[in-house]
Specification:
Elements: H1 21-30, E1 45-46, H2 58-65, H3 75-88, E2 92-96, H4 99-110, E3 116-119, H5 124-132, E4 136-139, H6 160-170, E5 178-181, H7 194-206, E6 211-214, H8 218-228, H9 237-246, E7 250-254, E8 265-269, H10 272-285, H11 296-308, H12 312-331, E9 344-348, H13 349-352, H14 362-374, E10 376-377, E11 379-381, E12 388-389, E13 396-397, E14 403-407, H15 415-430, E15 438-442, E16 453-456
Parallel strand pairs: 1-10, 3-4, 5-6, 6-7
Antiparallel strand pairs: 2-8, 7-8, 9-14, 11-14, 12-13, 15-16
Helix pairs in contact: 1-14, 2-11, 3-11, 4-5, 8-9, 12-15, 14-15
């Protein structure tokens, strides 16, 4: 059959509030033209993020009712620990309230002034936690990963030559850890091949540099490997994921993505000394090592979600639903990052609004119009999120790509919702020349996209 149906039935529904264009124009102005500041109830289709926005399953909700809320040594922790150990193979599992908390702990221990952390592409919170420690986050994605139009099966791969050169230039003693983000969110949700993971592992191991995965979308990456990499078509997604994890020394995990929950994360590592140091920080900042900022019910939901996410019927539906959105937009001439990634479609804002220069944030222009015109909330991943101004010269340094991410929450929207998004974007594209640029009125020193305020340039 050509039609791929949702591998689930809907048991509970949530109403959507409809608004008019006039109402949304007023809402945009009051929110400083920043979708993060819009009340969720005023959003028709919310594609801001796939983080923490999943619909949980009946078994996850049942696990919540069964959660053990003991302060120390809760039964729910040991179930959670067992599931994560079985999946990752790592010896020490440290729960945190979300992925950035795991990053904060890791880089508090390994970061610092004069240190450098290479990655394919760091996402926003990873970069922020590295820079907050005083270290420098370095992106070494392959050249194909920097071009929205280039077709490549694994655009999230790291450039091995650049990694080796980087280590020679900076010195292995100044690189406390190397990372890989799977899938590569900032680069368009693009996967990383097993061969590339193995090459990165070998280079880092040669220089005695630990290797950590940012694994929040590990299952989607594993399914891409099954579909696209020779030798893996007959392996299960779980087996592929286990092989991915075996190549690294640990991982940070935002369970709000591929564990299908609304809150939670963990740091999983093999080094016992690093684990003990991490637990010491955990106790001060998150909680006791057997709950780490989470309730027992959260731990139960994560454990169940990790079992469900490697189901191939789910992953086939998940990736195909993203691909479907991408195909519809591409057929209408809308420029998107190709090929479609695992969790989102990324509009190429530079081509969507070529009349808006980078310093006027073309992605923010598209994001605001998506909400104004149709009530869709998306997020800019371009010069608002990753652009900066050189402190010495005052020169504006734009992001490598100007993108708008349409992140699809897991198990939330139906095909008719997606078709509405398609129709609206196509109509927007026809009138793209009317879109205006924006100027910043306020920005925080770090992660400015969350709280920035803008005004349109008339």
């Amino acid at each position: 059959m050509k039609t791929i149906i949702e591998p689930f039935k809907i048991k509970t529904v949530e109403p959507i509030r409809f608004t008019t264009i006039e109402e949304r124009e007023d809402i945009l102005e009051k929110s400083g033209y920043n979708p993060f500041m819009i009340h969720a109830e005023d959003v028709l289709i919310d594609l801001l993020t796939d983080s923490g926005t999943s619909a949980m399953s009946a078994k996850q909700w049942a696990g919540i009712m069964d959660g053990d809320e003991s302060y120390a040594g809760a039964r729910s922790f040991y179930r959670f620990e067992s599931v994560v150990k079985d999946l990752t193979g790592y010896a020490h599992i440290i729960p945190t309230h979300q992925g950035r908390a795991a990053e904060k702990i890791l880089f508090t221990l390994l970061g610092g002034t004069g240190k450098y952390i290479p990655n394919n592409t760091h996402f926003d919170t990873t970069r922020a936690n590295i820079e907050y420690s005083g270290a420098e986050a370095i992106d070494l994605v392959i050249e194909e990963g920097k071009d929205p139009e280039t077709l490549h099966p694994f655009k999230g791969n790291m450039d091995i030559g650049k990694l080796e050169q980087f280590i020679r230039e900076r010195g292995a003693e100044n690189i406390p850890v190397g990372m890989m983000t799977v899938t590569n969110n900032a680069g368009g949700g693009q996967p990383v091949s097993m061969a590339n993971l193995r090459e990165v592992r070998d280079v880092l191991k040669k220089h005695n540099i630990p290797f950590i995965l940012d694994a929040c979308r590990f299952a989607e990456n594993a399914y891409f490997i099954k579909l696209r990499e020779a030798g893996y078509s007959d392996k299960s997604v779980k087996e592929i994921a286990q092989e991915m994890f075996s190549l690294a020394d640990g991982c940070t995990m935002s369970a709000k993505k591929d564990a299908l929950v609304n809150m939670g994360g963990y740091l999983a590592i093999n080094d016992p000394e690093l684990a003990q140091a991490a637990r010491n920080i955990l106790i001060v900042t998150e909680g006791f090592p057997t709950y780490g900022g989470l309730s027992g019910r959260d731990l139960e939901a994560i454990a169940q979600g990790l079992l469900e996410v490697v189901d191939e019927h789910y992953l086939k539906y998940r990736l195909r639903s993203i691909e479907y959105l991408g195909e519809k937009l591409t057929d209408a001439g809308v420029p998107i990052l190709q090929p479609p990634g695992g969790h989102a479609i990324y509009i190429n804002a530079k081509k969507f609004t070529p009349h808006v220069p980078a310093e006027q944030f073309p992605g923010q222009s598209v994001v605001c119009e998506l909400y104004r015109f149709g009530g869709i909330r998306a997020v800019e991943i371009g010069s608002v999120m990753f652009g900066k101004t050189d402190k010495k010269s005052g020169e504006f340094i734009p992001a490598a790509m100007e993108l708008v991410r349409l992140a699809i929450p897991r198990r939330v929207y139906t095909q008719s919702h997606v078709d509405y998004v398609v129709e609206l974007i196509i109509e927007m594209y026809k009138n793209r020349n009317s879109l205006k640029g924006y100027r910043l009125l306020y920005e925080a020193p770090m992660l400015r996209h969350f709280t920035a305020r803008f005004e349109p340039i008339v």
